[in-house]
Design brief:
Pfam families: Ribosomal_S25. Belongs to the eukaryotic ribosomal protein eS25 family. This is 40S ribosomal protein S25. It comes from Maudiozyma saulgeensis. Keywords: Ribonucleoprotein, Ribosomal protein. The protein has about 110 residues and is α+β, with helices and mostly antiparallel strands. It has a domain of about 70 residues: Winged helix-like DNA-binding domain superfamily/Winged helix DNA-binding domain (Arc Repressor Mutant, subunit A, Orthogonal Bundle), CATH 1.10.10.10. It has four helices and three strands; from the N terminus they run H-H-E-H-H-E-E. The chain has a three-stranded antiparallel β-sheet. Helix 3 packs across helix 4. The termini are far apart.
């Protein structure tokens, strides 16, 4: 094994200062889901659309209204209660966390 070469203190200091200049690791950017802009105020246009489209759905729940009509969750719950009072939809299952309705068919 050949003997190691002697390095001067100045050369060691220069080598130490040169090291560690590597840039820091960049974390990969995750794809973020865009925040949905759902309606929180019921205007006449949304009400007309609810009254026209919702009675044609076979399965009606808060999540269906939020997804298809771009309503906020609380607004969808209010709309479902109103439609039930009007007799446009009828409840299938009512629970505190999930209300399921279907269209009211004339018997």
């Amino acid at each position: 094994m050949p003997p190691k070469q002697q390095i001067s203190k100045a050369a060691k200091a220069a080598a130490a200062m040169a090291g560690g200049k590597k840039s820091k690791k960049k974390w990969s950017k995750k794809s973020h889901k865009d925040k949905a802009a759902h309606a929180v105020i019921l205007d006449q246009e949304k009400l007309d659309r609810i009254l026209k489209e919702v009675p044609t759905y076979r399965y009606i729940s808060v999540s269906v209204l939020v997804d298809r009509l771009k309503l906020g969750g609380s607004l969808a719950r209010v709309a479902l209660r109103d439609l039930e009072k009007r007799g446009i939809i009828k409840p299938v299952s009512k629970h505190s966390t999930q209300q399921i309705y279907t269209r009211a068919v004339a018997e």
